[in-house]
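Input sequence (364 aa), recorded before submission:
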Amino acid sequence: MFYSQAKVIAGGLVHIPIVISVFYLIMTFFNKRAIKFEEANKSKKTEAKVVESKTDPKQAASKPTKKKHADVPVNIYRPKTPFEGTVTGNYSLLKEGAIGRVNHITFDLKESDPFLNYVEGQSIGIMPVGEDANGKPHKLRLYSIASTRHGDDFEGNTVSLCVRQLQYEKDGETINGVCSTYLCDIKPGDKVKITGPVGKEMLLPDEEDANIVMLATGTGIAPMRAYLRRMFEATEKEKNKWNFKGKAWLFMGAPKSANLLYEEDLQRYLENYPENFKYTKAISREQQNTKGGRMYIQDRVLESANEIFNMIEDEKTHIYLCGLKGMEPGIDEAMTKAAEEKGLNWSELRPQLKKAGRWHVETY
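Predicted structure, token format:
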């Protein structure tokens, strides 16, 4: 059959509305199915989220939560771009008859830009002048800060360190530590390269009614001094708007009474805040433990085991350990024995305290 071109076109045009209608019906059908499928999936996801978020309140309460310290300044100055601070003071902390050499050294931070601010419990790095045996610059050493963020003069422009000169014998010769000797020898007006601050391990809790147990030997008292000044110095309390209401207990280890550091301040805190501060000394060459041997800090911990663990049972109690690394095994042994007397397992309890942010250790 033969159709003219005009008829073919006209016939085609007639079918266009029908094709469009069919196409529209198909699209509508699939769109509806897609919407239903998406809604079904949404409801399933919502159900899953609800199920995941359901937690036993008792179980949640028992889980330790470690607070984060996002607002703490870290690495304002790095080894490649240190700040040169000016020494404002350097004096001995020891009394006559003491062993070794320990100095309190203060640096002026006013010229730092950006300002080198820090908080209690942090450390700074010191870059000693000179080169090592290979002709390379001496590596920096980290030292715990011994002052509060407001400095020793409460003006907020200084940082202080408590430094013991390292000395040891090698092949019959006395070797002096590079950085510790450098620091003990510097004089007011000298410039020193400083890095940091660093560290979030030894920070104080924010709660005013927290309990703070401090275990220190030698210059490990540095961060403890900062804590105690923050707690008990009237000007600090006024500046911080932080009124410590808990209990602070310092266990301090030293070889001789003449080696006890910041003793005048500690005695003043004892006199002014007897309800909040307790101070226990372990003087190894002058005191004896129950076995007739030298008195070390772990012996004092063992003596006070019951009271210490009563404090640990309070979730607001934090324990800080700072000093020579060699003190850790002794403290661990004492805590193990003390825990056993309370029917506890220290090897299980310590990780729990650590996870909860209540066990703080900085040894060197």
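Checked by second reader. The chain has three domains: 5-54, 83-198, 204-363.
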